[in-house]
Amino acid sequence: MPDMSSSTYLSNRKRAEGLGAAKSGTEHYWGMIQSSVALLILVPLFVFTFGPILGASFEEVQAYYSRPFPAIVAALTLTVSWLHFKNGAQTAIEDYTRGMTRKLSIIAVTCIAYAAIAAGLFALVALAL
What we know:
This protein is mainly alpha-helical. The protein has a single domain, classed as Up-down Bundle (3 helical TM bundles of succinate and fumarate reductases), CATH 1.20.1300. The protein has helices at residues 12-16, 25-50, 58-65, 68-96, 99-128. Helix 2 (25-50) runs antiparallel to helix 4 (68-96).
């Protein structure tokens, strides 16, 4: 008996109008573009705010990161870069793995990224306060 599912009645154009099999490809791609542009701005700012304090004493570093601008730049750079890593790694995992390995790998990468963000922000807050 022929397959009479609803997809057999769709034209090629109607099948292609969706966002792909995962229904989130366009959103994921747009998020990667946005985080890339943000990192184009944040990484040079971080280098120029982190560089002058590199090698200073703990008290100098603590006083420096008590100021809002270097602390905010460091926090934003840390957060955006780990989220960008998570999304890029997730894309690679989705492209090259299948089944339970895919699911566990995505969960592991997500946990690592959020744990690194939490640890970095905690260290920054502890340093600044």
